[in-house]
Design goal:
Elements lengths: L3 E7 L3 H10 L3 E7 L25 H10 L3 H7 L3 E4 L4 E5 L2 E2 L8 E4 L2 H13 L4 E4 L3 E7 L6 E7 L8 E3 L2 E4 L7 H7 L7 E16 L10 E4 L8 E8 L3 E8 L9 H9 L5 H8 L7 E11 L11 E3 L5 E2 L7 H18 L8 H24 L6 E2 L5 H14 L4 H11 L11 H27 L11
Parallel strand pairs: 1-2, 1-11, 2-7, 4-13, 11-17
Antiparallel strand pairs: 3-6, 4-5, 8-9, 9-10, 12-15, 12-16, 12-19, 13-14, 14-15, 16-18
The structure holds flavin-adenine dinucleotide.
Length: about 475
């Protein structure tokens, strides 16, 4: 027996699908509304232009998805996805060295974004109490007379409805970065949530290649990070179903990869390591080069509002859309959906009034982790402008040491993976057990540099005589 009758979820991408899945446990009926026609098959669509680009699913995101969709992991693997340990099977080059390779227990998924969404969508559509209205645009919220509560939505171009309005006990906005909630609540007399943005002007250029087993015998994927502040370029080569590589070459602040094949290869050659260039220089390209521009990370601080309409929540990129290069967006959405699930469970049988306060508090905790990590990294570039995190220079110096130590010390790399997977707050890398190892690795690198310098000084010169002091 459900205490609440109807939920409406706006947006049928990853955040909306997850919200619909979670709410199907707590309300009699859920209606998922999506502007695009939703295909049954695996393919790109207009509302998710990033779907053509590389989309790694972090281990904690994969775990959440498998929790809500049992059997998903096997089904993805059967369709050609690769599920692999993020430390053992990834060649990750950062700060002049490859990360340590060992079994970390963090298994991420490598597949196309469209295949993942297709699997999740199919499972949500199969839920008996979820109805999907695709090719249906939401025009605005409907309100009670006092405008204290959102009571549903007004639709444009309703496909199979006789009435353009739908009522609900709760409406979830998962319409992504272009969410209209700030404008719609402002029109109803509310204050907009304070917003923070960080300007990064990242450009992605993606090309798909045929993948063969000899391409990368000792790993499944390659990441070559940028080396701020000097090099603004990065590259990612992830496997995908159908024996394909999805190659993404990207850069900050306008340093974007060219879209002609020769220029694309030259850009790959200019990365901090040669793995990607070596593979794509001889692999068969099977797509054009497609681009995506990401001007800024953006966060709406709904948790800071004193007043907010009852019956409305916001989830996913609509709350925070951040630099995608750490691959945390879908995991963030999954953890936000899990927070909603927990709160709905706590409220079972009770009114949902005031839920927004607890919900936005919990969502802010989820979002703060990736936000702090990526915006900190972004401020290593002098050109980055916007909401600067406090003490960012100091923190970045320490995080830089953590990143370097991750190439020799599995304990340090694991601490870093905890944060990247949003399992622990960024401050956890300051724990004495980790900090001591970071220091020890720094001293070892310093010692090695000193030894090198001494050896160079005492090395015989080419004519066989010792170099004079
Ligand atoms: C280039 C790029 C690369 C990325 N790489 C990764 C990665 O490697 N790993 C990762 O985890 N994340 C990645 N992300 C982030 C990830 O794509 C998002 O976090 C994820 O899709 C969740 O977003 P969302 O569902 O909140 O919003 P979106 O994916 O933007 O979806 C919003 C949905 O709402 C619909 N909609 C909008 N307005 C309306 C309306 N008025 N009525 C009805 N429907 C509407 C849209 O059609 C769309 O389907 C990347 C993002 C980008 C841009």
């Amino acid at each position: 027996m459900y205490a609440h009758r109807h939920a409406i979820v706006l947006g049928g991408s990853m955040a909306g699908l997850l919200a619909a899945r979670v709410l199907s446990d707590h309300l009699e009926h859920v209606t998922l509304i999506e502007r695009d026609p939703l295909p049954d098959e695996n393919g790109p669509r207009k509302g998710v232009p990033q779907g053509r680009h590389v989309h790694g699913l972090l281990a904690s995101g994969l775990n959440q998805l498998c929790r809500y969709f049992p059997g998903l992991r096997d089904a993805l693997t059967a369709d050609g996805a690769i599920i692999a340990d993020m430390a053992e099977r990834v060649r990750w080059h950062q700060r002049g060295a490859y990360k340590a390779r060992f079994v970390s227990g963090y298994e991420g998924a490598f597949l196309s974004r469209t295949l993942l969404e297709q699997h999740v969508r199919r499972r949500v559509r199969a839920l008996p109490n979820v109805t999907t209205l695709d090719a249906t645009d939401v025009e605005r919220f409907s309100w009670n007379e006092e405008h204290s509560r959102v009571t549903g939505v007004m639709l444009r171009a309703p496909r199979s409805l006789t009435t353009p309005s739908l009522d609900a006990d709760i409406v979830i906005d998962a319409t992504g970065r272009g969410s209209r909630t700030p404008a719609w609540i402002e029109q109803a007399g509310y204050v907009r949530a304070p917003e923070r943005s960080v300007k990064i002007d990242i450009g992605y250029a993606t090309r798909v290649y045929r993948r063969t087993p000899d391409d990368l015998p000792d790993a499944d994927a390659v990441i070559i990070s940028a080396a701020p502040p000097t090099s603004r370029r990065m590259g990612v080569l992830f496997p995908a179903e159908g024996d394909r590589w999805i190659c993404m070459l990207g850069g900050w602040h306008g340093d974007h990869a060219p879209t002609d094949p020769a220029g694309y290869l030259r850009f790959a050659e200019g990365l901090g390591a040669q793995d990607i260039h070596r593979i794509i220089a001889r692999a068969e390209p099977i797509s054009e080069i497609s681009t995506h521009r990401f001007p800024s990370s953006r966060r709406c601080h709904y948790e800071r509002l004193q007043r907010f309409p009852e019956g409305l929540l916001v989830l996913g990129d609509a709350v925070s859309s951040f630099n995608p290069s750490y691959g945390q967006g879908m995991t963030s959405a999954a953890l936000q959906a899990a927070a909603l699930d927990r709160l709905m469970r706590d409220r079972r049988g009770r009114s949902l009034d005031g839920l927004w306060r607890e919900y936005f508090r919990d969502v802010a905790r989820v979002v703060s982790i990736p936000w702090d990590v990526v915006s900190g990294e972004d401020f290593r570039f002098r050109e980055t402008t916007g909401a600067r995190p406090p003490l960012v220079g100091l923190i970045n110096r320490y995080v830089g040491q953590v990143q370097k130590a991750s190439s020799t010390d599995p304990v340090v790399f694991t601490a870093f993976l905890h944060v990247m997977n949003m399992q622990k707050v960024p401050q956890s890398v300051l724990a004495p057990r980790v900090a001591w190892r970071v220091l020890r690795a720094g001293l070892a690198r310093w010692g090695a540099r000193e030894r090198d310098a001494t050896e160079r000084t005492h090395a015989p010169v080419h004519d066989g005589r010792a170099r004079p002091h």
